[in-house]
Protein backbone atom coordinates (compact mmCIF):
# COMPACT_ATOMS: atom_id res chain seq x y z
CA UNK A 1 0.00 0.00 0.00
CA UNK A 2 1.20 3.51 -0.77
CA UNK A 3 0.03 6.36 1.42
CA UNK A 4 0.47 10.00 0.42
CA UNK A 5 0.11 12.52 3.24
CA UNK A 6 -0.15 16.29 2.67
CA UNK A 7 2.13 16.61 -0.31
CA UNK A 8 3.05 20.11 -1.48
CA UNK A 9 5.15 20.84 -4.55
CA UNK A 10 5.89 24.07 -6.34
CA UNK A 11 8.10 25.23 -9.21
CA UNK A 12 9.50 28.70 -8.51
CA UNK A 13 6.36 30.74 -7.71
CA UNK A 14 3.84 28.26 -9.06
CA UNK A 15 2.22 25.88 -6.57
CA UNK A 16 1.58 22.67 -8.54
CA UNK A 17 0.45 20.29 -5.79
CA UNK A 18 -1.46 21.43 -2.71
CA UNK A 19 -2.18 19.23 0.29
CA UNK A 20 -2.61 15.94 -1.57
CA UNK A 21 -3.73 13.00 0.60
CA UNK A 22 -4.29 9.70 -1.18
CA UNK A 23 -3.92 6.01 -0.36
CA UNK A 24 -3.32 3.41 -3.04
CA UNK A 25 -4.29 -0.14 -2.15
CA UNK A 26 -2.57 -3.45 -2.88
CA UNK A 27 -3.84 -5.67 -5.67
CA UNK A 28 -5.92 -2.84 -7.09
CA UNK A 29 -5.65 -0.63 -10.13
CA UNK A 30 -5.59 2.89 -8.75
CA UNK A 31 -6.23 5.67 -11.23
CA UNK A 32 -5.22 9.31 -10.99
CA UNK A 33 -7.32 11.33 -13.39
CA UNK A 34 -7.42 15.00 -14.24
CA UNK A 35 -7.08 17.48 -17.07
CA UNK A 36 -3.77 18.13 -18.76
CA UNK A 37 -1.73 20.44 -16.52
CA UNK A 38 -3.62 19.47 -13.36
CA UNK A 39 -0.47 18.07 -11.72
CA UNK A 40 -0.93 14.31 -12.28
CA UNK A 41 2.52 13.70 -13.74
CA UNK A 42 4.20 15.89 -11.10
CA UNK A 43 2.37 13.88 -8.43
CA UNK A 44 3.54 10.60 -9.94
CA UNK A 45 7.11 11.89 -10.25
CA UNK A 46 6.99 12.85 -6.57
CA UNK A 47 5.69 9.41 -5.60
CA UNK A 48 8.45 7.57 -7.49
CA UNK A 49 11.12 9.97 -6.24
CA UNK A 50 12.03 11.74 -9.49
CA UNK A 51 10.91 15.00 -7.84
CA UNK A 52 11.10 15.93 -4.18
CA UNK A 53 8.06 17.61 -2.62
CA UNK A 54 8.54 20.48 -0.17
CA UNK A 55 6.31 18.96 2.47
CA UNK A 56 4.50 15.75 3.26
CA UNK A 57 5.01 12.02 3.51
CA UNK A 58 5.13 9.27 0.89
CA UNK A 59 4.79 5.94 2.67
CA UNK A 60 5.56 2.69 0.86
CA UNK A 61 4.09 0.07 3.21
CA UNK A 62 5.03 2.32 6.12
CA UNK A 63 8.49 3.32 4.80
CA UNK A 64 8.75 7.07 4.20
CA UNK A 65 10.44 7.73 0.85
CA UNK A 66 11.38 11.28 1.83
CA UNK A 67 13.27 10.15 4.96
CA UNK A 68 15.09 7.29 3.27
CA UNK A 69 18.86 7.15 2.90
CA UNK A 70 20.37 6.76 -0.58
CA UNK A 71 20.86 3.01 -0.16
CA UNK A 72 17.30 2.46 1.08
CA UNK A 73 15.97 4.49 -1.83
CA UNK A 74 17.95 2.34 -4.24
CA UNK A 75 16.58 -0.83 -2.67
CA UNK A 76 13.03 0.55 -2.88
CA UNK A 77 13.46 1.44 -6.54
CA UNK A 78 14.09 -2.22 -7.29
CA UNK A 79 10.57 -2.89 -6.03
CA UNK A 80 9.17 -0.34 -8.48
CA UNK A 81 8.25 -0.87 -12.12
CA UNK A 82 7.31 2.05 -14.30
CA UNK A 83 5.75 2.43 -17.71
CA UNK A 84 6.37 5.85 -19.23
CA UNK A 85 4.13 7.82 -21.56
CA UNK A 86 6.71 7.39 -24.33
CA UNK A 87 7.52 3.77 -23.33
CA UNK A 88 11.14 4.95 -22.81
CA UNK A 89 12.71 1.84 -24.30
CA UNK A 90 16.46 1.93 -24.89
CA UNK A 91 16.90 2.49 -28.65
CA UNK A 92 20.26 0.79 -28.86
CA UNK A 93 18.99 -2.47 -27.37
CA UNK A 94 16.77 -5.16 -28.87
CA UNK A 95 13.38 -5.93 -27.32
CA UNK A 96 14.84 -8.90 -25.42
CA UNK A 97 17.82 -6.85 -24.19
CA UNK A 98 15.44 -4.11 -23.01
CA UNK A 99 13.48 -6.60 -20.91
CA UNK A 100 16.70 -8.22 -19.69
CA UNK A 101 18.21 -4.87 -18.67
CA UNK A 102 16.89 -4.70 -15.07
CA UNK A 103 17.85 -8.36 -14.63
CA UNK A 104 21.37 -7.68 -15.95
CA UNK A 105 21.73 -4.81 -13.51
CA UNK A 106 20.28 -6.32 -10.37
CA UNK A 107 19.87 -10.08 -10.65
CA UNK A 108 22.53 -12.61 -9.71
CA UNK A 109 20.97 -15.27 -11.95
CA UNK A 110 22.98 -16.92 -14.70
CA UNK A 111 22.73 -15.52 -18.22
CA UNK A 112 20.51 -18.43 -19.28
CA UNK A 113 18.10 -17.83 -16.38
CA UNK A 114 17.96 -14.11 -17.15
CA UNK A 115 17.13 -14.82 -20.79
CA UNK A 116 14.46 -17.30 -19.66
CA UNK A 117 12.89 -14.77 -17.30
CA UNK A 118 12.92 -12.04 -19.97
CA UNK A 119 11.34 -14.41 -22.48
CA UNK A 120 8.70 -15.38 -19.91
CA UNK A 121 7.83 -11.69 -19.43
CA UNK A 122 7.70 -11.13 -23.17
CA UNK A 123 5.48 -14.17 -23.55
CA UNK A 124 3.20 -12.74 -20.84
CA UNK A 125 2.61 -9.68 -23.04
CA UNK A 126 2.39 -11.82 -26.21
CA UNK A 127 5.53 -10.42 -27.79
CA UNK A 128 7.90 -13.35 -27.79
CA UNK A 129 8.11 -13.27 -31.60
CA UNK A 130 9.44 -9.68 -31.54
CA UNK A 131 12.31 -10.36 -29.13
CA UNK A 132 15.09 -9.75 -31.64
CA UNK A 133 13.60 -6.56 -33.07
CA UNK A 134 14.62 -3.04 -32.05
CA UNK A 135 12.20 -0.48 -30.54
CA UNK A 136 12.26 1.54 -33.77
CA UNK A 137 11.02 -1.50 -35.70
CA UNK A 138 7.85 -2.15 -33.67
CA UNK A 139 4.55 -0.26 -33.30
CA UNK A 140 3.63 2.09 -30.45
CA UNK A 141 1.33 -0.50 -28.89
CA UNK A 142 4.04 -3.15 -29.02
CA UNK A 143 6.50 -0.70 -27.44
CA UNK A 144 4.09 -0.20 -24.54
CA UNK A 145 3.81 -3.97 -24.12
CA UNK A 146 7.61 -4.28 -24.09
CA UNK A 147 7.67 -1.53 -21.45
CA UNK A 148 5.20 -3.57 -19.39
CA UNK A 149 7.37 -6.68 -19.78
CA UNK A 150 10.44 -4.70 -18.68
CA UNK A 151 8.54 -3.23 -15.73
CA UNK A 152 7.53 -6.66 -14.41
CA UNK A 153 10.88 -8.37 -15.06
CA UNK A 154 12.02 -7.96 -11.45
CA UNK A 155 8.64 -8.86 -9.94
CA UNK A 156 7.93 -5.35 -8.61
CA UNK A 157 5.58 -4.68 -5.70
CA UNK A 158 4.56 -1.31 -7.09
CA UNK A 159 3.73 -0.54 -10.71
CA UNK A 160 3.42 3.02 -12.03
CA UNK A 161 2.01 3.87 -15.45
CA UNK A 162 2.13 7.42 -16.78
CA UNK A 163 -0.56 7.72 -19.42
CA UNK A 164 0.04 4.24 -20.83
CA UNK A 165 -2.58 4.71 -23.56
CA UNK A 166 -1.43 8.02 -24.96
CA UNK A 167 -0.96 7.85 -28.70
CA UNK A 168 -2.69 4.47 -29.03
CA UNK A 169 -5.90 3.59 -30.85
CA UNK A 170 -8.92 2.62 -28.69
CA UNK A 171 -8.60 -1.11 -29.42
CA UNK A 172 -4.90 -1.26 -28.52
CA UNK A 173 -5.63 0.87 -25.44
CA UNK A 174 -8.08 -1.77 -24.25
CA UNK A 175 -5.43 -4.48 -24.71
CA UNK A 176 -2.90 -2.46 -22.67
CA UNK A 177 -5.49 -1.73 -19.95
CA UNK A 178 -6.51 -5.37 -19.71
CA UNK A 179 -2.87 -6.42 -19.52
CA UNK A 180 -2.03 -3.99 -16.72
CA UNK A 181 -5.17 -4.96 -14.81
CA UNK A 182 -4.57 -8.70 -15.07
CA UNK A 183 -0.88 -8.35 -14.12
CA UNK A 184 -1.88 -6.26 -11.09
CA UNK A 185 -4.23 -8.97 -9.85
CA UNK A 186 -1.87 -11.81 -10.75
CA UNK A 187 1.11 -10.38 -8.83
CA UNK A 188 -0.95 -8.55 -6.18
CA UNK A 189 0.85 -5.30 -6.99
CA UNK A 190 -0.04 -1.75 -6.04
CA UNK A 191 -0.68 -0.22 -9.43
CA UNK A 192 -1.07 3.49 -10.04
CA UNK A 193 -2.08 4.79 -13.44
CA UNK A 194 -2.10 8.41 -14.58
CA UNK A 195 -4.67 8.81 -17.29
CA UNK A 196 -7.30 10.95 -18.91
CA UNK A 197 -8.56 8.10 -21.05
CA UNK A 198 -12.22 7.53 -20.15
CA UNK A 199 -12.14 3.95 -21.44
CA UNK A 200 -9.50 3.17 -18.82
CA UNK A 201 -11.50 4.93 -16.14
CA UNK A 202 -14.64 2.95 -16.91
CA UNK A 203 -12.80 -0.27 -17.65
CA UNK A 204 -10.13 -0.88 -15.03
CA UNK A 205 -10.42 1.84 -12.38
CA UNK A 206 -10.79 -0.03 -9.08
CA UNK A 207 -10.18 3.22 -7.24
CA UNK A 208 -10.11 6.66 -8.82
CA UNK A 209 -8.66 9.93 -7.54
CA UNK A 210 -9.52 13.12 -9.41
CA UNK A 211 -6.96 15.93 -9.33
CA UNK A 212 -8.03 19.48 -10.17
CA UNK A 213 -5.52 22.34 -10.31
CA UNK A 214 -3.11 20.56 -7.98
CA UNK A 215 -5.67 19.57 -5.34
CA UNK A 216 -7.42 16.26 -4.79
CA UNK A 217 -11.01 17.00 -5.70
CA UNK A 218 -12.72 13.63 -5.50
CA UNK A 219 -12.15 9.92 -4.87
CA UNK A 220 -14.29 6.87 -5.42
CA UNK A 221 -14.89 3.86 -7.65
CA UNK A 222 -15.94 3.84 -11.29
CA UNK A 223 -19.52 3.11 -10.18
CA UNK A 224 -19.50 6.22 -7.95
CA UNK A 225 -18.74 8.43 -10.96
CA UNK A 226 -22.26 8.11 -12.29
CA UNK A 227 -23.80 9.22 -9.02
CA UNK A 228 -21.26 11.91 -8.21
CA UNK A 229 -22.52 15.44 -7.75
CA UNK A 230 -19.04 16.99 -7.96
CA UNK A 231 -19.37 19.52 -10.74
CA UNK A 232 -15.70 19.65 -11.67
CA UNK A 233 -15.55 15.87 -11.93
CA UNK A 234 -18.71 15.81 -14.04
CA UNK A 235 -17.35 18.55 -16.30
CA UNK A 236 -14.19 16.51 -16.83
CA UNK A 237 -15.69 13.03 -17.18
CA UNK A 238 -18.79 13.88 -19.15
CA UNK A 239 -17.16 16.30 -21.54
CA UNK A 240 -18.12 14.01 -24.39
CA UNK A 241 -21.75 13.68 -25.52
CA UNK A 242 -21.49 9.91 -25.60
CA UNK A 243 -20.58 9.68 -21.92
CA UNK A 244 -23.31 12.20 -21.03
CA UNK A 245 -25.84 9.87 -22.65
CA UNK A 246 -24.37 6.89 -20.79
CA UNK A 247 -24.74 8.76 -17.51
CA UNK A 248 -28.36 9.66 -18.23
CA UNK A 249 -29.12 6.05 -19.16
CA UNK A 250 -27.31 4.79 -16.07
CA UNK A 251 -29.23 7.14 -13.77
CA UNK A 252 -32.55 6.29 -15.41
CA UNK A 253 -31.97 2.55 -15.17
CA UNK A 254 -34.22 0.79 -12.59
CA UNK A 255 -32.48 0.36 -9.23
CA UNK A 256 -31.75 -3.25 -8.25
CA UNK B 1 24.61 37.96 -13.93
CA UNK B 2 26.74 36.12 -16.50
CA UNK B 3 29.32 35.35 -13.83
CA UNK B 4 26.62 33.92 -11.54
CA UNK B 5 25.23 31.82 -14.39
CA UNK B 6 28.70 30.51 -15.25
CA UNK B 7 29.32 29.61 -11.61
CA UNK B 8 25.97 27.85 -11.50
CA UNK B 9 26.79 25.85 -14.63
CA UNK B 10 30.23 24.96 -13.30
CA UNK B 11 28.69 23.83 -10.01
CA UNK B 12 26.16 21.63 -11.83
CA UNK B 13 29.00 20.21 -13.93
CA UNK B 14 30.96 19.29 -10.78
CA UNK B 15 27.89 17.68 -9.20
CA UNK B 16 27.34 15.62 -12.35
CA UNK B 17 30.99 14.56 -12.41
CA UNK B 18 30.67 13.54 -8.76
CA UNK B 19 27.73 11.31 -9.72
CA UNK B 20 29.56 10.02 -12.78
CA UNK B 21 32.69 8.88 -10.99
CA UNK B 22 30.80 6.59 -8.63
CA UNK B 23 31.58 2.89 -8.67
CA UNK B 24 29.53 1.20 -11.42
CA UNK B 25 26.71 -1.04 -10.14
CA UNK B 26 27.82 -3.99 -12.26
CA UNK B 27 31.32 -4.15 -13.70
CA UNK B 28 30.16 -6.53 -16.44
CA UNK B 29 27.65 -3.93 -17.67
CA UNK B 30 30.26 -1.19 -17.41
CA UNK B 31 32.71 -3.15 -19.59
CA UNK B 32 29.96 -3.91 -22.09
CA UNK B 33 29.19 -0.19 -22.39
CA UNK B 34 32.91 0.66 -22.39
CA UNK B 35 33.63 -1.63 -25.36
CA UNK B 36 30.61 -0.21 -27.21
CA UNK B 37 31.88 3.34 -26.65
CA UNK B 38 35.45 2.39 -27.67
CA UNK B 39 34.00 1.38 -30.99
CA UNK B 40 31.51 4.25 -31.35
CA UNK B 41 33.70 7.13 -30.19
CA UNK B 42 37.17 5.83 -31.00
CA UNK B 43 37.24 3.28 -33.79
CA UNK B 44 34.56 5.10 -35.78
CA UNK B 45 36.68 8.27 -35.66
CA UNK B 46 39.82 6.67 -37.12
CA UNK B 47 38.68 7.25 -40.70
CA UNK B 48 38.13 10.99 -40.37
CA UNK B 49 41.35 11.40 -38.33
CA UNK B 50 43.41 9.65 -41.02
CA UNK B 51 41.76 11.53 -43.86
CA UNK B 52 42.13 15.01 -42.35
CA UNK B 53 45.65 14.39 -41.05
CA UNK B 54 46.83 13.05 -44.42
CA UNK B 55 45.68 16.15 -46.30
CA UNK B 56 46.80 18.62 -43.63
CA UNK B 57 50.25 16.96 -43.54
CA UNK B 58 50.46 17.33 -47.31
CA UNK B 59 49.23 20.94 -47.29
CA UNK B 60 51.62 21.98 -44.49
CA UNK B 61 54.51 20.50 -46.45
CA UNK B 62 53.53 22.37 -49.63
CA UNK B 63 52.95 25.67 -47.78
CA UNK B 64 56.27 25.51 -45.96
CA UNK B 65 58.08 24.64 -49.17
CA UNK B 66 56.46 27.54 -51.04
CA UNK B 67 56.57 30.21 -48.34
CA UNK B 68 59.54 29.50 -46.11
CA UNK B 69 62.00 27.52 -48.20
CA UNK B 70 64.58 29.83 -49.79
CA UNK B 71 68.24 29.60 -50.83
CA UNK B 72 69.07 30.99 -47.38
CA UNK B 73 67.31 28.15 -45.56
CA UNK B 74 68.60 24.59 -45.19
CA UNK B 75 66.73 22.09 -47.40
CA UNK B 76 65.52 20.05 -44.43
CA UNK B 77 63.48 22.95 -43.01
CA UNK B 78 60.26 21.79 -44.75
CA UNK B 79 60.37 18.29 -43.23
CA UNK B 80 61.47 19.63 -39.86
CA UNK B 81 58.67 22.24 -39.65
CA UNK B 82 56.02 19.81 -40.89
CA UNK B 83 57.03 17.33 -38.18
CA UNK B 84 56.99 19.93 -35.40
CA UNK B 85 53.59 21.31 -36.43
CA UNK B 86 52.08 17.83 -36.64
CA UNK B 87 53.59 16.66 -33.33
CA UNK B 88 53.09 19.77 -31.25
CA UNK B 89 49.81 21.22 -32.39
CA UNK B 90 47.89 19.59 -35.19
CA UNK B 91 47.67 15.95 -34.08
CA UNK B 92 46.85 16.85 -30.49
CA UNK B 93 45.04 20.20 -30.32
CA UNK B 94 43.55 20.75 -33.78
CA UNK B 95 42.60 17.09 -34.12
CA UNK B 96 40.82 17.31 -30.75
CA UNK B 97 38.97 20.42 -31.93
CA UNK B 98 37.77 18.41 -34.91
CA UNK B 99 36.83 15.52 -32.62
CA UNK B 100 34.94 17.96 -30.38
CA UNK B 101 32.71 18.55 -33.40
CA UNK B 102 32.26 14.91 -34.32
CA UNK B 103 32.31 13.11 -30.97
CA UNK B 104 31.03 16.00 -28.81
CA UNK B 105 27.87 16.57 -30.83
CA UNK B 106 27.32 12.81 -31.00
CA UNK B 107 27.51 12.46 -27.20
CA UNK B 108 25.35 15.53 -26.48
CA UNK B 109 22.62 14.60 -28.93
CA UNK B 110 22.55 10.95 -27.81
CA UNK B 111 22.21 11.85 -24.13
CA UNK B 112 19.85 14.74 -24.87
CA UNK B 113 17.53 12.47 -26.83
CA UNK B 114 17.67 9.89 -24.04
CA UNK B 115 16.69 12.65 -21.60
CA UNK B 116 13.72 13.99 -23.60
CA UNK B 117 12.41 10.49 -24.38
CA UNK B 118 12.52 9.66 -20.64
CA UNK B 119 15.11 6.88 -21.07
CA UNK B 120 17.28 8.50 -18.38
CA UNK B 121 14.25 8.72 -16.06
CA UNK B 122 13.63 5.03 -16.72
CA UNK B 123 17.18 4.23 -15.59
CA UNK B 124 16.76 6.33 -12.43
CA UNK B 125 13.44 4.65 -11.59
CA UNK B 126 15.13 1.26 -11.85
CA UNK B 127 17.67 2.43 -9.26
CA UNK B 128 20.52 2.72 -11.77
CA UNK B 129 22.97 5.63 -11.38
CA UNK B 130 22.27 6.93 -14.87
CA UNK B 131 25.22 9.36 -14.91
CA UNK B 132 27.71 6.65 -14.03
CA UNK B 133 26.08 4.12 -16.35
CA UNK B 134 25.95 6.42 -19.38
CA UNK B 135 28.78 8.94 -18.97
CA UNK B 136 31.62 7.05 -17.29
CA UNK B 137 32.07 4.57 -20.20
CA UNK B 138 32.15 7.49 -22.66
CA UNK B 139 34.83 9.38 -20.73
CA UNK B 140 37.02 6.31 -20.14
CA UNK B 141 36.61 5.09 -23.73
CA UNK B 142 37.58 8.42 -25.30
CA UNK B 143 40.51 8.90 -22.92
CA UNK B 144 41.68 5.36 -23.81
CA UNK B 145 41.35 5.86 -27.55
CA UNK B 146 42.79 9.36 -27.90
CA UNK B 147 46.53 8.39 -27.71
CA UNK B 148 45.93 5.96 -30.58
CA UNK B 149 44.10 8.61 -32.59
CA UNK B 150 46.93 11.11 -31.99
CA UNK B 151 49.52 8.53 -33.06
CA UNK B 152 47.53 7.64 -36.18
CA UNK B 153 47.15 11.35 -36.95
CA UNK B 154 50.92 11.97 -36.72
CA UNK B 155 51.61 8.97 -38.95
CA UNK B 156 48.95 9.99 -41.51
CA UNK B 157 50.27 13.58 -41.57
CA UNK B 158 53.79 12.37 -42.29
CA UNK B 159 52.53 10.03 -45.02
CA UNK B 160 50.65 13.04 -46.45
CA UNK B 161 53.90 15.01 -46.49
CA UNK B 162 55.64 12.11 -48.28
CA UNK B 163 52.80 12.02 -50.80
CA UNK B 164 53.75 15.56 -51.89
CA UNK B 165 57.29 14.31 -52.45
CA UNK B 166 56.46 11.04 -54.19
CA UNK B 167 53.38 12.03 -56.13
CA UNK B 168 53.63 15.82 -56.44
CA UNK B 169 57.38 16.20 -56.68
CA UNK B 170 57.21 19.28 -54.43
CA UNK B 171 60.20 18.24 -52.37
CA UNK B 172 62.88 15.58 -52.56
CA UNK B 173 62.02 12.57 -50.40
CA UNK B 174 65.57 12.47 -49.00
CA UNK B 175 65.34 16.12 -47.86
CA UNK B 176 61.98 15.43 -46.27
CA UNK B 177 63.30 12.32 -44.47
CA UNK B 178 66.31 14.24 -43.22
CA UNK B 179 64.10 17.08 -41.98
CA UNK B 180 61.67 14.71 -40.29
CA UNK B 181 64.55 13.06 -38.41
CA UNK B 182 66.50 16.23 -37.67
CA UNK B 183 66.88 16.86 -33.91
CA UNK B 184 63.92 14.67 -33.11
CA UNK B 185 62.71 15.16 -29.52
CA UNK B 186 60.74 12.18 -28.26
CA UNK B 187 59.20 14.32 -25.49
CA UNK B 188 57.19 16.23 -28.11
CA UNK B 189 55.27 13.04 -28.95
CA UNK B 190 54.49 12.62 -25.26
CA UNK B 191 53.50 16.30 -25.06
CA UNK B 192 50.91 15.69 -27.78
CA UNK B 193 49.59 12.57 -26.08
CA UNK B 194 49.43 14.17 -22.62
CA UNK B 195 47.60 17.21 -24.00
CA UNK B 196 45.17 15.01 -25.89
CA UNK B 197 44.28 13.09 -22.71
CA UNK B 198 43.12 16.35 -21.12
CA UNK B 199 41.26 17.32 -24.29
CA UNK B 200 39.54 13.92 -24.46
CA UNK B 201 38.30 14.41 -20.92
CA UNK B 202 37.05 17.90 -21.78
CA UNK B 203 35.24 16.72 -24.93
CA UNK B 204 33.52 13.74 -23.31
CA UNK B 205 32.63 15.31 -19.95
CA UNK B 206 31.48 18.72 -21.23
CA UNK B 207 29.41 17.19 -24.04
CA UNK B 208 27.90 14.67 -21.62
CA UNK B 209 27.02 17.50 -19.23
CA UNK B 210 25.18 19.46 -21.91
CA UNK B 211 23.39 16.38 -23.23
CA UNK B 212 22.47 15.03 -19.81
CA UNK B 213 21.04 18.34 -18.58
CA UNK B 214 18.70 18.95 -21.52
CA UNK B 215 15.22 20.08 -20.57
CA UNK B 216 12.50 20.30 -23.19
CA UNK B 217 12.35 18.87 -26.68
CA UNK B 218 14.21 18.53 -29.96
CA UNK B 219 15.14 22.23 -30.18
CA UNK B 220 16.87 22.02 -26.80
CA UNK B 221 18.70 18.86 -27.92
CA UNK B 222 20.01 20.81 -30.92
CA UNK B 223 21.05 23.71 -28.68
CA UNK B 224 22.76 21.32 -26.26
CA UNK B 225 24.67 19.79 -29.15
CA UNK B 226 25.86 23.22 -30.31
CA UNK B 227 26.75 24.30 -26.76
CA UNK B 228 28.70 21.08 -26.26
CA UNK B 229 30.86 21.71 -29.34
CA UNK B 230 31.35 25.44 -28.69
CA UNK B 231 32.23 25.10 -25.00
CA UNK B 232 34.44 22.04 -25.53
CA UNK B 233 36.34 23.94 -28.24
CA UNK B 234 36.82 27.03 -26.07
CA UNK B 235 38.02 24.92 -23.15
CA UNK B 236 40.38 22.96 -25.40
CA UNK B 237 41.94 26.17 -26.73
CA UNK B 238 42.24 27.66 -23.25
CA UNK B 239 43.74 24.54 -21.70
CA UNK B 240 46.04 24.17 -24.73
CA UNK B 241 47.57 27.51 -23.82
CA UNK B 242 48.20 26.43 -20.24
CA UNK B 243 49.36 22.88 -21.07
CA UNK B 244 51.74 24.07 -23.79
CA UNK B 245 53.33 26.48 -21.29
CA UNK B 246 53.61 23.74 -18.68
CA UNK B 247 54.85 20.93 -20.90
CA UNK B 248 57.38 22.76 -23.06
CA UNK B 249 59.15 24.67 -20.30
Explain what you see.
The complex is a heterodimer of chains A (256) and B (249). With 256 residues, chain A is of the alpha/beta class. Chain A has a domain of 129 residues: P-loop containing nucleotide triphosphate hydrolases (Rossmann fold, 3-Layer(aba) Sandwich), CATH 3.40.50.300. In chain A, 41% of the residues lie in helices and 24% in strands. In chain A, the strands form two sheets. Chain A has a six-stranded mixed β-sheet, sandwiched between helices. In chain A, α4 packs across α5. Chain A starts with a strand and ends with a helix. Chain B has 249 residues and is mainly α. Chain B has one domain. Chain B is elongated and about 70 Å long. The chains are: A alpha/beta (256), B mainly alpha (249). Chains A and B meet through α2 and α3 of A and α2 and α5 of B.
What's the N-to-C terminus distance of chain B?
Answer: 38 Å
Q: Write the CATH architecture name of the domain at 1-78 and 190-240 in chain A.
A: 3-Layer(aba) Sandwich
Number of strands of chain B: 0
Please give the radius of gyration of chain A in angstroms. 19 Å
User: What percent strand of chain A?
Assistant: 15-25%
- Largest sheet entry of chain A: 6 strands, mixed
* Major protein interface: A-B, 24 and 15 residues
Largest sheet of chain B: none
What attributes does this structure have?
heterodimer; A: 256 residues; alpha/beta; Rossmann fold; six-stranded mixed β-sheet; four-stranded antiparallel β-sheet; 10 helices; 10 strands; globular; B: 249 residues; mainly alpha; 9 helices; 83% helix; elongated
List the helices and strands and how they pair.
The complex is a heterodimer of chains A (256) and B (249).
Chain A: E1 2-11, E2 14-24, E3 29-33, H1 40-48, E4 55-60, E5 63-64, H2 70-77, E6 80-83, H3 95-106, H4 111-124, H5 140-152, E7 158-162, H6 170-187, E8 190-195, H7 198-204, E9 207-212, E10 215-220, H8 222-227, H9 231-237, H10 241-252
Parallel strand pairs in A: 3-8, 3-9, 6-7, 7-8
Antiparallel strand pairs in A: 1-2, 1-4, 4-5, 9-10
Helix pairs in contact in A: 3-4, 3-5, 4-5, 5-6, 6-7
Chain B: H1 2-20, H2 27-42, H3 46-67, H4 77-116, H5 119-125, H6 130-166, H7 173-181, H8 186-212, H9 218-247
Helix pairs in contact in B: 1-6, 2-6, 3-4, 3-6, 4-6, 4-7, 4-8, 4-9, 6-8, 8-9
